[in-house]
Amino acid sequence: MEQDSEYLLLESIKDLGEKQESISQRDLSREVQLSLGMTNVILKRLAEKGLIRVRRVSSRTVTYVLTPEGLNELARRTWRSLKRTIKKVSDCRDQVQQLVETAAATGHSQIILLGDSDLDFIVEYAASRAGLHFTTVMQETQIPADAFVFVSENWKGSWNQACRDSTTVYTLLTGEKICAPMC
After folding, report:
1. N or C: which end of the chain has fewer CB within 10 A?
2. What Gene3D superfamilies does its record include (predicted)?
3. What CA–CA distances, in Å, run from 21 to 33, 42, 63, 125?
4. 9, 49 Cβ separation under 8 angstroms
5. If we measure between CA atoms, which residue out of 147, 158, 151, 153 comes closest to residue 177?
């Protein structure tokens, strides 16, 4: 998903403003990982919209401050972002629940999560509801035979070892089947 650069700058101005007296364009460009030129363009646009105020600290230094309208806009965009995130987590939960129910119906007795995940609670909850044992493993070699496996969104390794004859493997975020038992 493309990041909202205006939102990131508004958020950074708020956060940095709470920590330091002045905020430079360079500080902001580093914080949001944008080029200095792009940061300048977006800051001008935010000032034109009345969302930020540029305040001169000295003859060579300026700082950026959120206006009340800018704070309202930041709150509005934060709320929209939160709603999108909740929707994605809910969709993921439904998809994982459906896959876990399929695992239970096809005779699997355990659900394995390969790698650390921010969404492990969803898999654990779904496994519990289906009466299946849940385990997180950090190496493909720890996956028992006949396991139903979700590969974490943070997994950096290969899942070739996980794809053995009696293992079903899905990616956690997309629910895409990587491999299934050979018949």
Report:
1. C
2. Winged helix-like DNA-binding domain superfamily/Winged helix DNA-binding domain
3. 21, 21, 8, 46
4. no
5. 151
What DSSP state is assigned to residue 141? G
Q: Are 83 and 115 contacting, i.e. CB atoms less than 8 angstroms apart?
A: no
φ and ψ at 82, to 5 degrees?
-65, -45
Question: Under CATH, which number does the domain 90-179 receive?
Answer: 3.40.50.2300
Q: Name the nearest CA neighbour of 102 among 5, 180, 4.
A: 180
> Which class would CATH give 5-66?
mainly alpha
What are the structural domain ranges in the chain? Answer: 5-66, 90-179
Instruction: Please give the DSSP secondary-structure letter assigned to residue 33.
Output: T
In the numeric block, the tokens 């944008």 are attached to 34
Chain center to CA of 172 = 13
Q: pTM here? A: 0.69
State the first-to-last Cα distance of the chain, in angstroms, to the nearest integer. 38
> Which secondary structure element, helix H or strand E, spans residue 183, and what is its range?
none
Q: How far is 74 from 72, CA to CA, in rounded Å?
A: 5
DSSP structural state of residue 142 = G
How is 96-136 classified by DSSP, letter by letter? HHHHHHHHHHTT--EEEEES--TTHHHHHHHHHHHT-EEEE
pLDDT of 79 reads: 96
One-letter amino acid identity for 96? V
